[in-house]
Structures are given as C-alpha cells and as structure tokens.
Amino acid sequence: MHSASSDRPTRLQPLRALRAVRQLIRTPEDTEQVFHIMNALRGHTTERNLARLQREAPELVTRRDEVLPLLADREWLASLPPDSLGRHYLAFCLREGITADGLVAASEAAGSARSESVGNWFERRSRDTHDLWHVITGYGTQPLGEVCVVAFSFAQIGHAGFGVIALAGSLRHAQDIGLKAAFAPTLEALRNGRRAAWFHSQDWAEQLTRPIDQVRAGLGVRAPQVYLDTLDAYATASA
Fold this sequence. Notes:
Elements lengths: L13 H13 L5 H9 L4 H12 L1 H6 L4 H5 L1 H5 L6 H12 L7 H6 L8 H11 L1 H8 L5 H15 L2 H18 L1 H17 L8 H4 L4 H8 L5 H14 L1
Helix pairs in contact: 1-2, 2-12, 7-10, 11-12, 11-13, 12-13, 13-16
C-alpha cells in the first residue's frame, strides 16, 4: 500500500481550532477558517480513510486521478445528458456563481499541504468534491445547507473538524429558530450520511455521466425533508 502520509502533523491542535471556530461564527463566509479547523483536528483521519479506500476501491488509490480537472471542464460537463449528475453540477455552479477550484485558494491560505503524497491526494479529493456532494445530497449553499452537508461529511469520514463545524453552525442557527429546530436538520444529515454508501470510493468520472436519480439511488441518498421543512420555517419567519 502507498504511504498514507499527508505531509502534515497528526497531533490535534484544539486551541488553533477554537480560534478558527470563533472567527467562523463571527464571519461565516470566511472559508479559510474551515480549513484551519480541518487541519487542526485532522489527527489520523486521512490514514484511516485511505486504509478503507485501499480495501474498497484499490484501483482509485493506484490511479490517483484528480477530480478537479473534470469538474472544471465546463465544455465536457455541458456535453453530458441533461439529466446527468454532471449537468446538474454545472447548473448548480452557474446558479450559485461558483467555480470548481473555488476552495483551493482558501485551503492553501490555511496551510494545507501541496505535495504528491497519497494522503494529500485524498485530502484534495475530499476538498474538490465538496460542491458535488451538495448537488447529490440536495443541500443548498446557504448557511443551513452548509451545516448539513458538513454533518453528512462527518458521518461519512469521521473527521472531528466536520463535527465541530456542524455543532458550531447548529448552535448559531439555534439563536434564530431555537435549539430543537436548529439541530433537527443536522441530525437528519448525520443519519443520511451514515445510511448512504461511502462517497469516497466512487469513480466520479463515471458517476458524473449517469442520471442523477440513478446516482442518488445507487448511493442510498435520502431526501433531506427536515432540512427542506426548516428552510420553509426560516422563510415564514422572515416574511
């Protein structure tokens, strides 16, 4: 098996994470803080998930294909069938005004390593597919949707950073809609993430060409009904 080193320390840095959480709560749009939290609380998450990937999809580890070039190729995405995951991803990017490499600068500013180790490849793969996960799971890019997709991600890979971000985001929403209402969509996302197939073992080059409904069914992704109901409650409260 390839070395799982990500060229980053595995020692937890709770104080660094706490400072970043405080900053993220003050300015939720400061994406760089997310990567500070992730780097500070990485521990041995990368090594553990790489070992699982080696068991479940060793060909992906051998090839180490990068996902970012696929997601950035809008001409190729536009050539896919209208009902494909790739076309839905492209429509999502155009609608939200985002690009496939939008998280790269923030991660590098936070000190994420840039190397060719298999560990860094895995971490890039996780970072670069974040918006794709939004499309598959049905969570939007508003703050509540971000909290939910992070909770889903925590259930999938067990990174403590995801757990802390989801908790902090839920507590922030509780100030507006109450504790129970704020945590209900987060808990739903956790359940959905546990029940779904492991996203990291997917060949995204293939999945992008398939109908999105087939992708969701094959991965066992459930509709985020509690999240959608909570969005309606937000809309009603602000009307």
